[in-house]
TrEMBL record:
Domain Peptidoglycan recognition protein family: 36-178
Keyword Transcription set for record: no
Keywords: Immunity
GO biological process entries: immune system process; peptidoglycan catabolic process
N-acetylmuramoyl-L-alanine amidase domain span: 47-184
Entries under PANTHER family matching the protein: PEPTIDOGLYCAN RECOGNITION PROTEIN, PEPTIDOGLYCAN-RECOGNITION PROTEIN LC-RELATED
InterPro entries membership: Amidase/PGRP_sf (IPR036505), Amidase_domain (IPR002502), PGRP (IPR015510), PGRP_domain_met/bac (IPR006619)
GO function terms (MF aspect): N-acetylmuramoyl-L-alanine amidase activity; zinc ion binding
Keyword Transmembrane helix set for record: no
Protein's recorded name: Peptidoglycan-recognition protein
SMART domains per the UniProt record, alphabetical: Ami_2, PGRP
Record-stated family: Belongs to the N-acetylmuramoyl-L-alanine amidase 2 family.
Length: 223
């Protein structure tokens, strides 16, 4: 599924606003920008990534993570936390960039990580076939607030509308594909109840075949 997008949007849905990444001639139409706001890399003060590798979309797998680090409840605090996490991933872990595709704050905003088209560093073995949303905080013993949970769902819907996530996607917690407690026991118990949760019993998820990358008008560009 390829969605060609121009300034007037596609025929199926009329974008109500656009996200333009700094220096990027392309724009993301934000079909649900009335319900979720994406804070761009420029807005949270990202460092440049070391290299960029793209994956084919739409992906059919979505992973939910928590950062197991600090919570944040305002845009200023979440922007600061994004810079802390990016430094941790780039410097201490030695990765190209902050690992997740998007991070979610309890201010109800989504923060641009590797965005929709870039291979992340979030779920070993699955990074080239999945988009990962990570809620900032530790949700082992408590849930994220409603604003953060609503933002995750709105971002998945936005990903579907942009042609980045298949409508019949499967959703997993990080722990379904690795030896980790992530996304925290309490949050994991919640996402197990969501419609697209894909784990059946103790069966491990089956990795789909990666699809070739093809640039589209909504591919992000300035990293
Ligand atoms: Zn994780």
């Amino acid at each position: 599924m390829t969605t060609e997008i121009n300034q007037t949007g596609n025929a199926d849905a009329k974008p109500v606003c656009y996200l333009v990444t700094e220096g990027n001639p392309h724009a993301y139409p934000l079909l649900r920008c009335d319900t979720v706001t994406i804070v761009t890399r420029a807005e949270w003060g990202a460092n440049a990534c070391k290299s960029v590798n793209y994956m084919g979309t739409p992906v059919s797998v979505v992973f939910i993570h928590h950062t197991a680090m600090s919570e944040c409840h305002t845009q200023d605090a979440c922007a600061e936390e994004m810079r802390v996490i990016q430094r941790f991933h780039q410097v201490d872990r030695g990765w190209d960039d902050i690992g997740y595709n998007f991070l979610i704050g309890q201010d109800g905003r989504a923060y641009e990580g590797r965005a929709w088209d870039r291979i992340g560093a979030h779920t070993k073995g699955w990074n080239d076939v999945a988009i990962a949303f990570s809620i900032m905080g530790d949700f082992s013993n408590k849930l994220p607030n409603a604003a953060a949970l609503d933002a995750v769902k709105a971002m998945i819907d936005l990903g579907i509308k942009l042609g980045k996530i298949t409508p019949n996607y499967k959703l997993y917690g990080h722990r379904d594909a690795g030896t980790t407690e992530c996304p925290g026991q309490t949050l994991y118990e919640l996402i197990r109840t969501w419609d697209h949760f894909g784990r059946v019993g103790d069966q491990p998820p089956v990795k789909p075949t990666p699809i070739p990358y093809r640039p589209t008008a909504s591919t992000g560009g300035n990293y």
